[in-house]
Amino acid sequence: MIARMPSVRSVNVAPARPVKIGGRTVMTAIGKRGVDAPVRVGPTGLEGDEQADLSVHGGLSKAVYAYPFEHYPFWQTVRAQARVALWDEPLAPGALGENLTLEGLRESDVFIGDLLRFADCELAVSEPRFPCFKFNAAMGFPQAAKLMQQSGWCGFYLAVRAPGWIRAGESFELVPGAREVGIPELFRAKVRAG
Length: 194
Description:
Layout (H helix, E strand, L loop, with lengths): L6 E7 L3 E5 L2 E5 L4 E2 L4 E4 L2 E2 L17 E5 L3 H10 L18 E4 L11 E3 L4 E7 L4 H7 L4 H8 L4 E7 L1 E3 L6 E3 L7 H11 L1
Parallel strand pairs: 7-8
Antiparallel strand pairs: 1-4, 1-8, 2-3, 5-6, 5-12, 7-11, 9-10, 9-13, 10-11
């Protein structure tokens, strides 16, 4: 159970851009950056944000991607072990491709259909995120996606139930839904099936 109100540490957006990965050029918007001002949340996501491949990211059910800040020390450590970053080099919020870097809400706390009620918008938990080769490139080493699968620290997608505005630093309420299917269980099942 959650001890305190969860909050938004950072709101992150990025335009899609061409990046060279494995000798080929692909479009990606994984390198998101924090925004200081309030950001408009519409039915398909945050204003100023794009998804490069709508077959796997974006759309109404995957409009916003949230990731727990509590997992950031793990990624900082494994990047240092892989020698793609210094031991004390922090990862900036948005580095994992998330729109919302959350504090106080992990995958084990949420179920499909739970609502995140903000002061001016409402988002519904829709599914876990599954990493791809672009995540490996963003983290800087080829085992990153496999580590996400093994740890289960995948974050989760959100559908927009009530459009509005969202800003860094704001707290929100977790409103339980039916609580039948949790993010960790669905993630593990899809990883095993895939």
